Amino acid sequence: MKSNLKNDVIFKTFFSRKGNEAFLIDFLEALLKVKIETIKIEQEVNLGRFSPEEKTGSLDVQAILNDGIVVDIEMQVDDRHNIIARTVFYAAKQMTRLTSKGEEYENIKKIIMINILNYELFPFENYITKTVTVMDHHREYVVIDGIEWYFIELPKFRRSRPDMEKKVNQWLAIIDDVDEELIEMAKEKNQLLRKVKAEFIELSGDEETRRLEELKDKWERDYKSGVSYAMEEGMRKGLREGLEQGLEQGLEQGLEQGLERGLEQGLEQGMEQGEKNKSIEIAKEMLKNGEDIQKIEKYTKLTKQEIQNLKL
Fold first, then answer.
1. 10 Å Cβ neighbour count for 205?
2. C-alpha atoms less than 13 angstroms from C-alpha of 165 in its C-beta half-sphere
């Protein structure tokens, strides 16, 4: 993948790196339209402690602003058709994690979820969408403001002829890294952005960053390959067994009824077997990477004995 901020490893590493706080503050001030006095970035990137699902998903940047507002930024290049459910789940998870036991509801920290997408999500041309939760018959009345979501759709930004006097558009031109004219205009109008290109070129040449990119790419390819093979094998086996059972039942109950039931059973068994094979493939990969059995049990739902058998 090209070394720019749409590469989620580079994105995470760049904005989480100590010393790069000014870049994140500049971007967030432009998008959120707030003055950021203090910022605390949660953690620097470490792919080794992420779950398998996260390794094949997207890496997010987490920061705490000013009086405790929590911001989570995620770069997603590919459309996995789950971004809405995913970001709602992550927001709820963040709120739970950051709330102390017995804490009053009014003291719960505000969560802002920012999703930068390299694909189109909504059926309208606005490329920056902010959500609010309002009353059904009083749309002007905001009921829930503890969580806000921002969705930024880069393909729409590209064709919008953006106003480059706006700082947020300057940042999007740099992040998108497609239109050279917009990139040059952004760097001309915002001196801080002149340093961005050099910074992530340095990051892309960094040995640790390259290792993270290679590891994530390997997880992605192995996961897709394993899931595809497991699902195909599971479906074939399930359909074969289901058809055999259906033919036997067809001799007694009638061929048409038996085949129908056999196909239903075959599809069900195929899906179950496919999911089991997927878990086995993931477990094998985790064993190769030295993960302990307890962690593998948690993420694959395989039994301890099944995992130990994979070592043989």
1. 10
2. 0
Alpha carbon distance 65, 15 (integer Å): 14
Radius of gyration of the chain (CA): 24
Domain boundaries, the chain: 8-205, 214-311
169: Cβ contacts below 8 Å, ≥ 6 apart: 157, 162, 163, 182, 186
Number of residues that this document lists for the chain: 312
Question: CA-to-CA distance for 53 and 60, rounded, in angstroms?
Answer: 13
What are the tokens at 287?
A: 């064993």
pLDDT digits (tens, 9 = 90+) for 133-153: 888 888 778 877 789 999 999
Is residue 142 within a helix (H) or strand (E), and if so which, with residue range? strand 142-153
User: pTM of the predicted model, to two decimals?
Assistant: 0.65
Task: Give the closest residue to 162 by CA, choosing from 299, 30, 10, 6.
Answer: 30
